[in-house]
């Protein structure tokens, strides 16, 4: 029997235009989903849900809507309902599509690019809803607007109509919105239900109820007056929880703290502005670098306790930034400087002693929030704020407000300020003593391990 011919492992030496692949519209999302949602496991599945929820929260931030419902259905789908203005249903002039179709089928399209609809928002890249649509086997939208209920559906990003329930129902492509009935007078809002595409997501990817509840609670603190209702219908028994907090980040700070308080919650608030150069379309359709004036609002809650752990939560327009960014860098820099300046006028710190950031962070619980239009994030997952000016503005606000508290002569502030200054000085001395102890142990270990002559053995101690 003749030996099999070995397969050639050589690459095609030619390289020309026919080797190039052009991905149109939402094809790029399905081809490389990790670029948009980070991964295709449970983490990516939850990220898609955050995108839809954050759009509803942005409406509440803009003053529209006071309730958001999230329902995890038995069939694996998830539904998000709000009572806001409703996605626009009129025709967008450039694409000749309805506002709903633009939002769900066009990347980098939406109302958060400086059009005046949102002063501050969690979504800014204009890819959230369209990415979720592209990665869904089925997505249904209902919009109450202008006294009419408008509806449409999508299959993997393509608009059309299903002939039954669920993601496996028959589908006919079709453009445009359909009238589904009349909305009650004065009622507006949006309902989105989608089935994640199992061709994209891993088999074990699932919505995490506990993570969803934690995020809902967090958001209710960040947007006072907004009610978020989470309902899980997947198990034998239906589970439902509701969150609404009018106390804002002060209440959030108290919720996060686990130790006995040394100070009450202190609010550090202020604003700043900066100039940012951004490319903008001119009348001829060309991108021109343009200087734009931006406002940045700073609102921070801090509280010191008698514990040793540090808890710092940071947010930009209600979007959590777990890996920090320029706003957190400015906050931490100002903390050290404020305490150093405040201690200069006291006798608490002896000559030669100094405090560092870790001394101030010990026992600190804080919630750092900033609001600005079109923030710069590192990537679509928005875990790190990159806007350079945020560091300077946050540091300035924190230093001014915190120093005023630490040096206040008001009775209600003076005792707390003294207590936290003493705590920070004590932390500094403990740190120095611990370092000296380690150095002594290191030297002792080095001597004991060295080979000394017998007549010098007694000199080791």
From TrEMBL:
<keyword id="KW-0067">ATP-binding</keyword>
<dbReference type="InterPro" id="IPR013506">
    <property type="entry name" value="Topo_IIA_bsu_dom2"/>
</dbReference>
<comment type="similarity">
    <text>Belongs to the type II topoisomerase GyrB family.</text>
</comment>
<dbReference type="GO" id="GO:0003918">
    <property type="term" value="F:DNA topoisomerase type II (double strand cut, ATP-hydrolyzing) activity"/>
</dbReference>
<dbReference type="Pfam" id="PF00204">
    <property type="entry name" value="DNA_gyraseB"/>
</dbReference>
<feature type="domain" description="Histidine kinase/HSP90-like ATPase">
    <location>
        <begin position="40"/>
        <end position="200"/>
    </location>
</feature>
<dbReference type="InterPro" id="IPR036890">
    <property type="entry name" value="HATPase_C_sf"/>
</dbReference>
<protein>
    <recommendedName>
        <fullName>DNA topoisomerase (ATP-hydrolyzing)</fullName>
        <ecNumber>5.6.2.2</ecNumber>
    </recommendedName>
</protein>
<keyword id="KW-0413">Isomerase</keyword>
<dbReference type="InterPro" id="IPR000565">
    <property type="entry name" value="Topo_IIA_B"/>
</dbReference>
<keyword id="KW-0799">Topoisomerase</keyword>
<dbReference type="InterPro" id="IPR001241">
    <property type="entry name" value="Topo_IIA"/>
</dbReference>
<dbReference type="InterPro" id="IPR014721">
    <property type="entry name" value="Ribsml_uS5_D2-typ_fold_subgr"/>
</dbReference>
<dbReference type="InterPro" id="IPR020568">
    <property type="entry name" value="Ribosomal_Su5_D2-typ_SF"/>
</dbReference>
<dbReference type="Pfam" id="PF02518">
    <property type="entry name" value="HATPase_c"/>
</dbReference>
<dbReference type="GO" id="GO:0006265">
    <property type="term" value="P:DNA topological change"/>
</dbReference>
<dbReference type="InterPro" id="IPR003594">
    <property type="entry name" value="HATPase_dom"/>
</dbReference>
<keyword id="KW-0238">DNA-binding</keyword>
<dbReference type="GO" id="GO:0005524">
    <property type="term" value="F:ATP binding"/>
</dbReference>
<keyword id="KW-0547">Nucleotide-binding</keyword>
<dbReference type="GO" id="GO:0003677">
    <property type="term" value="F:DNA binding"/>
</dbReference>
